[in-house]
Design brief:
Elements (H helix, E strand, L loop, with lengths): L1 H13 L3 H7 L4 H9 L15 H14 L1 H19 L3 H13 L4 E4 L10 E6 L2 E11 L7 E8 L5 E7 L6 E5 L11 E11 L3 E5 L1 H6 L1 H25 L5 H18 L5 H23 L9 H14 L4 H12 L1
Parallel strand pairs: 1-4, 2-4
Antiparallel strand pairs: 2-3, 3-7, 4-5, 5-8, 6-7
Helix pairs in contact: 1-3, 1-4, 4-5, 4-8, 5-6, 8-9, 8-10, 8-11, 9-10, 10-11, 10-12
Length: 331
């Protein structure tokens, strides 16, 4: 069910205007409306009634192949829903749950400030809450999403503080737009926090470092679908040009197996993510080559997919993934 619905949206709503979305740097609201109408904003709330793991990655791959800017923005939403589904802060859940699950409200995430060592975003405990100082370096959906799940590292005990804040201008917060090479309509920004107050009422959880690290592996697997989605769209376009894509298809199946094995703890996730992005770059390069000189002119599908494949080399990665990628590309 879910993969078929995603394919219908990707092929009839997203992909036909993906080149213009990329050129204009603006995602039509109709894209998000279509996803909401078919229930895609509530996937993280469905539990066992939702898509299986295999169906979920097929959905994400399909949507990323339809319009990366739209899918990249939509993907962030599930972090907020997941946080509210597991929090003991019932008042916060009640405040946002129905709107987020229906898609009436959209969510984004700001994890990246808490991940590096030392972190870029610190939380300091004060009476009745926390104060945040530092940088969230890569936050997608500003001006599109309504709320953000912000993660910061406590400066005293190294725990991770997760909180939900409104995605609007506020005292102690400044925003810098990032001119991305791809997915430009995603409105990705850098947010600086300077004494930004978080009351306890907005905190979803405080977890130790090991608990935080345990949540990273599924996210790395989930984000690997971006590269696979770009690769599969490039394969489809190559096939339309009469190119035999069977070797690429076989390679894609092997990479998908590697990603799935890694999330189960039976393979290295860094190597699997590196393989996915390398495949995306190679397939996109083949599509550019097969398209010919037309791909050198801006605002066409071949050059867009080449930039999107490049985007997956570093977006939502970790140092281990980058090292594995450099080694693959070098060797």
């Amino acid at each position: 069910m879910w993969p078929e619905l995603a394919r219908e949206i990707a092929d009839t709503v997203l992909f036909p205007v993906a080149d213009s979305v990329d050129a204009d740097g603006e995602i039509p609201s109709s894209h998000f409306d279509a996803l909401a109408a078919d229930g895609f904003y509530g996937l993280a709330a469905l539990g066992e009634e939702g898509p299986s793991a295999a169906e979920l990655v097929e959905v994400v791959e399909t949507l990323c192949g339809g319009c990366l800017a739209t899918a990249f923005t939509w993907m962030q939403h599930h972090g907020v829903v997941g946080a509210l589904a597991s929090t003991t802060n019932t008042a916060l859940t009640e405040q946002y749950w129905d709107g987020l699950v229906s898609g009436e409200l959209q969510g984004g995430v700001a994890y990246a400030g808490a991940i590096p060592r030392p972190p870029l975003l610190w939380a300091r405990r004060v009476d009745h809450g926390y104060v945040l100082d530092g940088i969230a370096p890569f936050v997608t959906g500003w001006g599109i999403v309504d709320v953000l799940l912000v993660s910061a590292r406590d400066e005293f005990d190294n725990s991770i503080v997760h909180s939900v804040v409104k995605a609007t201008d506020a005292p102690g917060l400044s925003v810098e737009e990032l001119p991305l090479i791809a997915a430009r309509g995603s409105n990705t920004v850098r947010i600086a926090f300077d004494g930004f107050a978080i009351p306890d009422a907005q905190v979803t959880a405080v977890v130790d470092d090991q608990q935080f690290q345990n949540t990273q592996l599924p996210g790395l697997w989930f984000n690997g679908a971006m590269a696979m989605g770009v690769a599969r769209r490039a394969m489809a376009e190559l096939a339309d040009l009469g190119v035999d894509t069977e070797p690429f298809q076989s390679q894609a199946e092997l990479v998908r197996e590697q990603l799935d094995s890694a999330v189960a703890g039976n393979a290295d996730m860094s190597a699997a993510r590196a393989a996915a992005s390398e495949l995306a770059v190679r397939v996109a390069a083949a599509f550019v080559t097969a398209t010919g000189s037309r791909s050198l002119v801006g605002s066409n599908t071949a050059e867009r997919l080449m930039r999107e494949a490049t985007f997956t080399l570093v977006a939502a990665t970790r140092p281990g993934i980058k090292t594995a990628l450099v080694e693959r590309l070098r060797d």
